[in-house]
Design a protein that fits this description.
single chain, alpha/beta, 10 helices, globular
Length: 277
């Protein structure tokens, strides 16, 4: 039986084994998928041992995505753009590094949430790894404008500059939160870690256009503070990042097995389990 794993530290909380087990049952693929705790100073060794024991591929989570990028022998274009890897594919020629986060986000937005990205105005909050990982797939959808906002305006500006060559159809710029006053957006994506601490980015009021969607990459049993604040500020609807988690997993599964599972029933079941605690 082909073996796969998600590698991280910590890892016990990961929903990936549940998701991939459901995908395997649905598609009839014979595989096992486990959660693998790697020592903080032993990621490369853990991957080498897993591969030697018959591993065919792995997902990578915090804090090893940069190490996974360095470990890979080859990178996909989206991994190269992200500068980080969350999916490893093992083949006879070595290790391929990919990043499925952006594809997962775009599919959740477009398919699950019916959010039209082409021609839209998008605000992306945060200029760290989470933002970097989704920028290329977002730009590929050809929004009219994409603004990156961050506490450190210089970091947001630098990130926008890095992706400028891929933004031919999009007005792309970066800056600080205070520079957003007076602007309105169709989609606001929170890619900061603020929700982990129960915080909200310091945004000016009135950012949401008519019918706008607020999206938080974090998820939990209830709405995050960011989503509560967005509703109070005029967002027409809100969504958390659970769909992104399932869709990036489906993208990884398709890379490994050559078949794309139906994410809809898996997402529904996972949301039920989280709500039940």
């Amino acid at each position: 039986m082909d073996r796969y794993a998600v590698v991280g530290n910590p890892i016990a909380h990961s929903k990936s084994p549940l998701i991939h087990a459901a995908f395997a049952r649905q598609t009839g693929e014979a595989l096992s998928y486990e959660a693998l705790l790697a020592p903080l100073d032993g990621f490369a060794r853990a991957i080498a041992e897993f591969r030697a024991a018959g591993g065919r591929g792995a997902n990578v989570t915090v804090p090893f995505k940069l190490e996974a990028f360095a470990l890979a022998d080859r990178h996909t274009a989206r991994a190269q753009a992200a500068g980080a890897v969350n999916t490893l594919v093992f083949d006879a020629d070595g290790i391929i590094g990919d990043n499925t986060d952006g594809a997962g986000l775009v599919r959740d937005l477009g398919v699950n949430l019916g959010c039209a990205l082409a021609g839209s105005r998008i605000l992306l909050l945060g200029a760290g790894g989470a933002s970097r990982g989704v920028l290329l797939p977002l730009l590929a959808e050809r929004p009219a404008a994409l603004v990156i906002a961050n506490r450190s305006a210089d970091k947001a500006t630098a990130l926008a500059g890095r992706f400028a060559p891929q933004a031919a159809a999009t007005q792309l710029r970066g800056g600080g939160f205070d520079a957003l006053a007076g602007e309105r957006f169709d989609l606001v994506i929170n890619a900061t870690a603020a929700s982990l601490a129960g915080d909200v980015p310091p945004l000016p009021p009135g950012l949401y256009a008519e019918g706008a969607l607020a999206y938080d990459m974090m998820y939990g049993p209830g709405r995050t503070p960011f989503l509560d604040t967005a509703l109070a500020d005029g967002a027409a609807r809100v969504a958390d990042g659970l769909g992104m988690l399932v869709e990036q997993a489906a993208e990884s599964f398709a890379l490994w097995r050559g078949v794309r599972p139906d994410s809809t029933p898996v997402l529904a079941e996972l949301r039920r389990l989280i709500a039940a605690g």
